[in-house]
Write a structure and sequence with these properties.
Length: 163
């Protein structure tokens, strides 16, 4: 178990929690992977190049891409999976400054400006199946129960309770 920062209130909470214990923000829902958004903070030294990259990799017109580069900070795209967000962030990274955040259904200008970027190491471990603990299957559970019974019996024998 690790402590992560709640995307809503910023306080520490367990990475295994379904919701923040402080504010109730849903951290994960069963079976539904987290979604991410990319926020363009600065269009970089060449906004035209950034607009062209946005046009190429997203379903945006050239005009929409140009408008996004002028209205920073702005939500470029939302509803991305971890892999999609990382891929797009890599493509945009050399041309502009953007941050990956947990997605919200509604973005106000204040929320866009104040959104805290996700901790990439924590999110990588949460998003990858290798980083998650899996429940034990039947045989693993039976083995654990039997091992506990053997240990308990040995402790009782050692303490002299069973003779």
């Amino acid at each position: 178990m690790a402590l992560i920062h709640c995307p809503e209130c910023g306080r520490e909470v367990s990475d295994l929690a379904a919701a923040c214990v402080h504010c109730g923000y849903p951290l994960r829902t069963a079976g539904i992977p987290a979604r991410y958004a990319l926020i363009l903070e600065d269009a970089g030294p060449n906004p035209g190049k950034t607009a062209a990259i946005l046009h190429k990799h997203l379903t945006l017109t050239q005009e929409e891409g140009r408008r996004l580069t002028e209205e920073t900070p702005a939500v470029v795209v939302q509803g991305l999976t971890w892999a999609e967000a990382c891929g797009l962030s890599e493509r945009l990274g050399h041309a502009c400054t953007c941050k990956m955040v947990r997605d919200k259904s509604v973005w106000t200008p204040e929320a866009v400006r104040d959104a805290a970027p996700v901790d990439l190491e924590q999110e990588r471990s949460r998003a990858s199946p290798e980083g998650r603990a899996r429940p034990m299957n039947f045989w693993q559970t039976m083995g654990a129960v039997l091992a506990a019974l053997v240990i308990w019996t040995l402790l009782l024998l050692w303490a002299g309770v069973l003779r």
